[in-house]
Amino acid sequence: MNPYVRYFLKRLGWSLITLTVAVMLNFLLPRMIKGNPVDTIVSSMTQGMTNQNDIKRVYETFEKEFGIDKPLWQQFFIYVGNIFRGDLGTSFGQYPKKVSTILANAIPWTLALQFPAIITGWILGNILGAVAAYRRKLFDKIVLPVSMAISSFPFFAFALIVLFFFSATLHWFPIGGGYSFDLIPTLSWQFIGSVLGHYALPFLTIVIVAIGGQAIGMRSMAIYELNADYILYAKLLGIRDRKVVRYVFRNAMLPQVTGLALQMGTMVGGALIAEIVFNYPGIGSSMFSAIRQLDYPLISGCTLMITFAVLIANFVIEVVYGLLDPRIKMAQLEDN
Amino acid sequence: MKGRKVFIFFTILIALCAFGLSAADAPKELPRNETLYINGLQWGPPANFNPLSTNAAFPVGYVNNYLLVYETLFMFNQLTGQSEPLLGKSFAWTDKLSLKVELNPAAKWNDGKDLNAADVVYSYMAAKRYALPWSAYMDYIDSVTAQGDSTVLIKLNPAKPNRLYALDSLNKVYIVPQHVWEPIESQDGKDITKISQEFNANPVGSGAYKVMFYDDTRIICQRDDNYWGKALFGKLPAPKYIAHMIYKSNDAGTNAFRQHEVDVSQQFINKVWDLWKKGEPYKTYLDKIPYYLPGGTPSITFNMTKKGLGDNVEVRRAIAMCIDYKKIAEVAMSNYSDQVVPGIILQTPSEKPLVDESAVKSLWYKQDAAAANKLLDSIGAMKGADGIRVLKDGTRLGPWDVSCPYGWSDWNASLEIVVQSAKKIGIDLRTKFPEFPVWYNDVKNGNFDICMWSTTNPGVAQPWDRARDKMDSTGVPPIGQPVVSNSNFGRYKNARADELIDKIPQETDQAKLKEMYTELDKIFLTDLPIVQLMYRPSLFYTVYEGVWKGLPDSKSNPSNVPPTPEMGSFIKALYNISAK
Lengths: 336, 580
Prior knowledge:
The complex is a heterodimer.
Chain A: H1 3-28, H2 37-45, H3 52-65, H4 72-84, H5 99-135, H6 137-152, H7 155-169, H8 189-226, H9 229-237, H10 241-266, H11 272-277, H12 283-292, H13 296-324, H14 326-335
Helix pairs in contact in A: 1-13, 2-3, 5-6, 5-8, 5-10, 5-13, 6-8, 7-8, 8-10, 10-13, 12-13, 13-14
Chain B: H1 2-22, E1 35-39, E2 74-76, E3 83-85, E4 88-95, E5 98-103, H2 117-129, E6 141-146, E7 151-156, H3 163-172, H4 178-187, H5 192-195, E8 209-215, E9 218-223, H6 230-233, E10 241-245, H7 250-258, E11 264-265, E12 282-284, E13 299-302, H8 313-322, H9 325-332, H10 357-360, H11 369-378, E14 382-383, E15 389-390, E16 400-403, H12 409-424, E17 429-432, H13 436-444, E18 450-453, H14 464-471, H15 495-503, H16 510-527, E19 530-532, E20 542-544, E21 548-549, H17 573-576, E22 578-579
Helix pairs in contact in B: 8-11, 9-12, 15-16
């Protein structure tokens, strides 16, 4: 068999096993939190009722509706069966909204905020780190401490300070929200402009913190590579600096790409703090309140999505690695 | 080649313009001087606009009694305690068990059909068939029948005749269109779980507003210019749009309020007086402490089955006397509360006349740590080596948990102060703040020592309902099973109190009622099953006057509009305001 196909199938197999275990844990763990979620819904419905039989009737209706009266293993199989049909269940906390509706409404905002921010932060951070490693001297002496300061500053504090200065005090940016308070979504330039204006601050805060983190990582990898034997050899051979630098970056980039894959996967979990500070729509705060309300279907829906995203991202990266990194090609050929 | 590129460019341009024009009927921008912005009534994305659901979003949510889309027969005015006419014109008792209501013949649904007695009958009786938000009333109401198109007769359950709840229902039951919901009932196989899952995006109500737009970030209502209420109020409400932004946190909402993006705020705002310090046009109903009118009293409830606590009224009284109420009001409530006058009534014009103050005054308590210490000394509770008292029979006064849900910061702060105060007189209390679902489950089942909870909201059934909620033991199961009929989590039981709570709603003689309420208040103050920590408004009311003028305050309120955003007869405010 073609070594590539073997590699691909092996990776796929492992991903599927991981997925199965993840789905099982995903189902089980929220249900182990202490407390009964049906209580919250039923108690508001039966407020003030005195007839115990009526109250019991309502309770049993909802227990049946949410399948909580069945044994755990049976609930699991119903759950898996529903997933295949695309039905992630009905939320307890936002009853009677369907989990898929909640996710469908919130995910686009989350992805639109995080995806460009993470990519931009990653690219700029890596360039900065690589240049700092290559140039050394003064440039590096500034970049390293500044990056460390930014990346270790707690994000919520950074976001609050940015909001206070640029929005509340200077009024350069709006105080929060996804788009202006007096607009209704339409495909007009005014609306798009409003969305972009409200997008700016959360985007910038995420990018700046990402740059800090990436720069440090890339700088360390690049310095490591620059001290490798093959670089010294290449320089002695007389190969031009620019070409040498290209070799360095291609090798130093590999761990950074892995990191990016993981970030891409977990970004569907939402940027909780950015959402709260900037009042930005997204899935982060929905997931947070789902956990606090013991909203099993919504918690499972969110974590399932994160699981899928991380697994897919990892799988894609591993395939890309296989193509990019010649050492893996060699390993497969040797196996044969 | 060039021609093709130009062609593609123009196609895209035209397509974009078409998109821009296609949403031409919905306004792209809400004019600031035609829109009233509100916050604090909706904290998450709208679940549905279904009046039969317990989870409906603003402006349909039953709990806060909004009258913007669906209406009730009468509107409750928290200022005067009166029920003011809306869909109903007048009501009268024809005999001890029958309440006759005359409807306003002008009432219409927003789809043009007439609203008549059949709809009222339908709305009430559906609550007997299914578990609806107002089903609790139907335990006490036998039947609601139509007598012609404009008259309705409510007959009480002779076994449990509760006149107060019948009157309360006039202000609370949403009247929903039979011609819309009856077909939905059959379609959903008469299954309440399916019926309450209907989203109802375009509610057919009788109110002045329709739901125009909603998403995860806002809910916007538009005025229905064909609103029948023009006949009742003489004109249409002033705001063409009412918009409620959905904020993810209290802070985000208050920030927006400071930026003039909100007109009426139902949020707890810390140090509200800072808003108008620099002359900005903000105000609350009262222009000085406590700024807000009381609606209830968050209180600590004692578990009456706990040894040393439940069987020892002196210990409870000592706790009541040691708490630093002033500090709680200052620290936890930003001074939005006066000193609580203990008892089952609020010191409002409608409730004060119901109790003979001279008979109960001697039972009132206030903060007096020295007297509390003396009281405990007098029952022989000596302080041990660790400073905590021990009763004569060996029961140590503690450690007892005082709990409320995590994250309710003003309550969390209040309980910290209670613990500190109790320590000073030798009682060992500890705070406990679990997450809400866990906490709620525990207290309902009686697994707590002391917990904090609120009292029921103002209404025509007060102060009776407040007493029933905390003192009635009917239907309260033993520890281990959940209490659902009221919030007597502590399992307090007093046979005479139960009797009074049962008889008061049937009594019509004012003098006799005063006797009964006074006796009930005495029992309350003697037994102290709860200790009231502070006053809290039923709804906060802070206003930005930069755009809309004429919102009520204590100095200028000619139509007696209660400062309860969107609840009950607050709706009258919408007719008195104007924007520049």
